[in-house]
Write a structure and sequence with these properties.
The structure is a single chain. 31% of the residues lie in helices and 28% in strands. By secondary structure, the protein is an alpha/beta fold. It has a single domain (5-203), classed as Rossmann fold, CATH 3.40.50. A 7-stranded mixed sheet has the order 5-4-3-6-7-8-9. Helix 1 (5-20) runs antiparallel to helix 2 (26-34). It binds S-adenosyl-L-homocysteine (SAH). The site of S-adenosyl-L-homocysteine has 23 residues, from strand 2, helix 5 and strand 4.
Length: 213
């Protein structure tokens, strides 16, 4: 897998771009500067890999915009050794960013094609998350509770089933809304039956869908 000086240079620029757009957490910026995004995209698109844009990855899905990945990651307040559930493995890029921060990641994808592709790619790159092919709406009750839950697809409403899989003191980051756009929400579980919600701006994700495909 090639990572040339040119790739490195473009990546440094991308890290500067997201910093200029308001990302403050240096660990997140460093992770964006480190993960070789061009490996997560088809080979013809290296130029595009380091633009701050979403991009098609097959199966009608997209690799999220780097700024959005950085924003969600910053909002998640990741600490080393946190156990994180990621819903929507997609290309695997966001997963790699979480792993670079030292987290243990359990990642679910409902599209079989993408599950297989990203599992092969991340493994080849030396990343070791736990991979699951399934419906993220159900979460992973057997592996719960999680310190953090990150949803990388637009959820029509807050996925209640997943809230129960958060540790007390844990946080879920989820874009909530329909096809015209979502509001980024952070939901903190502050007690057994008590949650705090906060809103963090508008974004546009592919939809979170039910069932496997
Ligand atoms: N984190 C990804 C973003 C991919 S886009 C990345 O960095 O590339 C969102 C992904 O969520 C898509 O791959 C889509 O298939 C997946 N998805 C949508 N609904 C889902 C569900 N209910 N369970 C698991 N994955 C889901």
């Amino acid at each position: 897998m090639i990572d040339s000086y040119r790739h490195k240079g473009l990546r440094k620029k991308l890290a500067d771009t997201i910093t200029n757009k308001g990302i403050k957490d240096q660990k997140v910026i460093d992770a964006i500067g480190k993960v070789t995004r061009h490996h997560f995209m088809d080979s013809g698109f290296v130029e595009f890999a380091y633009r701050d844009q979403a991009f098609p990855i097959g199966a009608g899905q997209t690799i999220s915009q780097p700024y959005t990945v950085a924003f969600q990651t910053e909002l998640l307040q990741v600490e080393k050794h946190h156990k994180i559930l990621e819903v929507g493995t997609g290309s695997g890029y966001q997963c790699a960013i979480l792993l670079e921060l030292g987290a243990k990641v359990h990642t679910i994808e409902r599209q079989r094609e993408l599950f297989l592709k990203s599992r092969a790619l991340l493994t080849e790159m030396g990343y070791k998350p736990y991979f699951y092919y399934g419906d993220g709406y159900k979460g992973l009750p057997k592996n719960a509770p999680f310190d953090k839950i990150l949803i990388t697809a637009g959820a029509p409403e807050i996925p209640v089933e997943l809230l129960k899989q958060l540790k007390i003191g844990g946080r879920m980051v989820v874009p909530v809304g329909g096809s015209s756009g979502q509001v980024m929400m952070a939901i903190d579980r502050i007690a057994e039956n008590e949650y705090n919600e906060s809103e963090h701006g508008h974004f546009s994700f592919v939809p979170m869908l039910k069932g496997k495909q």
